[in-house]
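Slack export, channel: ligand-projects

TW: morning all. Re-posting the request from yesterday since it got buried. We need the structure predicted with the small molecule present, not the apo form. The ligand is zinc ion; the SMILES is in the block with the sequence. No rush, but it would help planning for next week.
GE: picking it up
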Amino acid sequence: MAKTKSKKRSKRSEENEKLAEEGKFFINERINKLSNLTEEAVASKEFKSWLRVYSKFHNYSIGNVLWLVSQAYTRGVDPERFASFTTWKSISRNVRKGEKSFKVLAPVPVKYKDSKDLNTNGEAKLKQFMRFRVASTFELSQTEGEDIPSIDYRTEGEDFGLIDKLEAFAKSKNIDFAYVDEKELGSAKGCSRGGSIQVLDSLTGASRAATFAHELGHELLHWANGAVPSDHERSTLEIEAEATSFIVLEHFGIDASKSSFYLAAWKGSAVSIKQSLSSIRRSSKEILDFILDS
Ligand SMILES: [Zn+2]
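GE: finished. pasting the full token output, ligand included:
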């Protein structure tokens, strides 16, 4: 009797091991696929022309963004993208005559010799502080010229019931979720806040599932015990979240190959994906384990 039981148990554990092996293989295979697709995306003409333009856009500080938004609001402008007069010119767009600029604070480093702080030779140390000056910037709608290249990385099609499963997973992990409009999300498709996620309500089907899974990736990997996301660089966080989404969707037979362009935009490559391998495996396995059992 005891023998039969242990035989049964060992057979079951053998099966479980086999399944676990297959699961691992499956995830590895998907990660390899994503690495190859990302390398292709980085090398593509479409991506290169996009990068050429986007690398020229300035990333404004939070303070400046808030100031720009309030100026835009006062002027009734729906802001999309700001850049200086010369940056617009460099991508073959011109600011229309008579357009009034928006204001931002631009840092100007000021160097000085500190006579109160001497080095070992008795000379005043060279120090630096930041002064700010008001600079001009213009919004996309104030310019005209060549089209700005865009990359569409939105996954399309049906979700095959995946959204319901992702919602159930979120509930099981006590992660609140809400579908909200762009007033709350700005230009983002979703947001992870540590214990809660938001997804743009206009997304449907596979694109809604993709964003949901992406934000779950952030929740599982980047918010340890409710802490603020760690010191990881933003690009690493985005690569890990999007790769999680890719693996989950592909498992459901949803073509998520456009994720590769998102990864490429965040400086993703086969190398950076490999560096995040254990994180990507962990988050995608956790979600897949749950939804395959449910
Ligand atoms: Zn993200």
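GE: first-pass observations. Residues 214, 218, 238, 241 surround zinc ion (CB under 6 Å). The mean pLDDT is 86.
TW: perfect, thank you
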